[in-house]
Amino acid sequence: MEVIATRKRRFYKRFLPVQNIFHQPILRQLFQISIGILIQK
């Protein structure tokens, strides 16, 4: 269990900057649009 916890912590540390990007509405919209295009294909 502890090993999983440390892995999660590393994972969150690595993806925290990505989360900060998603808090910016313009970039979030762009991301949603690109996902929509991928789904349509």
* Amount of helix: over 70%
Query: Can you tell me the overall shape?
Result: elongated
Mean pLDDT across residues: 80
How far is the first residue's CA from the last residue's CA? 40 Å
- Alpha-beta classification: mainly alpha
The fraction of residues in strands falls at under 5%
- Give unreliable regions as ranges: none
- Count of distinct strands: 0
Largest sheet: none
* SSE sequence, one letter per element: HH
| DSSP summary: helix tally | 2
Protein architecture, described:
- With 41 residues, the protein is mainly α.
- The chain has 2 helices and no strands.
- The longest helix is centred in the N-terminal third of the chain and has 21 residues, at 2-22.
- The protein is elongated, with a radius of gyration of 15 Å.
- The N and C termini lie far apart (40 Å).
What's the topology here?
Blueprint: H1 2-22, H2 25-40
Main attributes of the structure:
single chain; 2 helices; 41 residues; mainly alpha
Give a brief rundown of this model.
The chain has helices at residues 2-22, 25-40. The protein is mainly alpha-helical and 41 residues long.
